[in-house]
Amino acid sequence: MKKIKYILITLLISLIYQVRVNASSLLVSCPSTANEGDTVTCTISATSDKKISGATGSITYSGVSYVTHSNLTGVSYFEVNNSGFDGVFDIKNSSVSLASYTFIAGSEGTAKVSTNCNVVVVGDEFDKDFDCTGSSATITISKNKTPEPAQNPENNNDNNNSSTNNTKKQTNKKKTNQNNTETPKTVEKSSNNELKELSIEGYSVIKEKDNKYTLMVDNDVEEIIIKASTKDEKATITGIGVKKIVDGDNKFEITVTAEDGTTKTYTLVVTREKKIDTNIEDDDTEDIKETVVEKKNHTMLYIFSILGVVSLIFIILIIFIIVKRKKSNN
Questions:
Q1: Backbone angles phi, psi at 321, to 5 degrees
Q2: What's the maximum distance between 2 C-alpha atoms anywhere in the chain?
Q3: What is the DSSP string of 234-248?
C-alpha cells in the first residue's frame, strides 16, 4: 500500500512539473480602490519559468478613461500604445515590467482592467510561440464625499467679534477673486519626431539622404531585427522588431510620432543577394569552350589554305623554270 502511495505521489509531482514547463503569464496590477475622477495607474508585467526576451499582448478596460501610457522596459524599439504592446528586448529576466497605463476613474461602481497574452518569447527562440495567459484587476470606485460646510463659532453679542468676522470674510472674498482671475498655464507638447539611431542587429546600415537607410545582406539571411531610438524620450516608434526578408529589395517604414502627434517616416531598404544558379554557369562555360574550339579550327583551316596556295605557286614556278631551260638548250 505504501509503495502504491509513493508511486502516485511521484506521478502527480512529475505531472505538475510538466505543466509548469514554459508557463508564461501577463500580470496586471492596479489599486483596489479609488474615488470618482481620481488618477489610477496600472502596471503590466510578464513572468515565465525561463528568461523572457519578448512579449506581445493587448489591454482592455471598462469603468475608467484612458489618459496615457509608458514603456517600462527601457528599450525604445519595444512598442507600447493605448491598446497593447509588441516587441523584443535584451533584458532576459524571468520577470519583466513591460508597461504602465494611466486612467481616470469613472462613476461609482466597479472598473476592470484586463490583459490578453498572445506570445511570450523566452531566451533567443524568436521562431517559437509559447502559450501564455492574461489576467485582470478590479477597482472599486466610490463617490466623492461632499465636504461639510465649516461651522461658524457661536455668535455672541460682542460687537468687536462681529466686526472681526466681517473683516475676515471680506479678505477671503478678495483672495477668491484673485485666484479666479489667474490664467492657467498651458504646457506645450514636444514636436520632436527625429530618430536618434537606427540599426539592424549584427549589421551596419548606411544612412542616405531624405531619411533613407540601406543595407546589403547575404542570400542565407532570412530575417532581421530592426532597432531604433528617438531624440525625444516622449516620442514613440512603430515598424521595428523582427522582420522577414526575401531575395531582392525589402522596404520597411519606421514611423516616429512626437508627443504632439506629428509624425515622420524613415525608409529602410534591405537588399538580399539573389541565389546564383550553378547550372546556368556550367552551360555558359560549355558554350564558351565550344566557341573557342570552333574559332581555333577556323584559324587552322585558314593557315593550311594559305600554305597550300603558296606551295602550288612554288611548284608552278619551278615547272616554269625547268621548261624554259629545256627550250634554251634546244
A1: -65, -45
A2: 187
A3: T-EEES-EEEE--SE
Q: Pick the residue with more confidence: 314 or 280? A: 314
- 10 Å CB burial of residue 89 (0-12, 13-18, 19+) is buried
Kindly give the pairing relationship between strand 263-272 and strand 212-217: parallel
pLDDT tens readout for residues 116-164: 887 667 666 554 556 678 899 999 999 987 665 555 555 545 555 555 5
CA distance 248 to 68: 40
Q: What letter represents residue 4's amino acid? A: I
Q: Distance from CA of residue 151 to its chain's centroid? A: 61
**Half-sphere exposure of 293 toward its Cβ, with a 13 Å CA cutoff?**
6
State the Cα angle at 203 between 197 and 205, rounded to 5°: 50
Mean pLDDT is lowest, of 7-16, 130-139, 186-195, for 7-16
Radius of gyration of the chain (CA): 43
Average pLDDT for residues 210-232, to the nearest whole number?
93
Q: What's the confidence (pLDDT) of residue 21?
A: 42
Q: How far is CA 237 from CA 85, 220, 233, 326, in A?
A: 12, 29, 10, 110
Model pLDDT for residues 50-97, shown as the tens digit of each residue: 777 777 888 899 999 998 888 888 777 678 888 888 877 666 677 888
Q: CB-based contacts of 180: which residues, under 8 Å, 6+ apart?
A: none
Q: Is 239 helix (H, G, I), strand (E, B) or coil?
A: coil
**64 touches 35 (CB < 8 A):** no
Type of residue at 5: K
Distance CA 103, CA 67 (A): 5
Rounded distance between C-alpha atoms, residue 318 and residue 312, angstroms = 10
Identify how many contiguous H helices and E strands the chain contains and give both numbers: 3, 17
Per-residue confidence at 12, pLDDT binned at 50, 70, 90? very low
Cell triple for 77 = 524599439
Count Cβ atoms within 10 A of the Cβ of residue 55 and give its class: 0-12 exposed, 13-18 middle, 19 or more buried.
buried
Tell if the pTM clears 0.70, that is, is over it. no
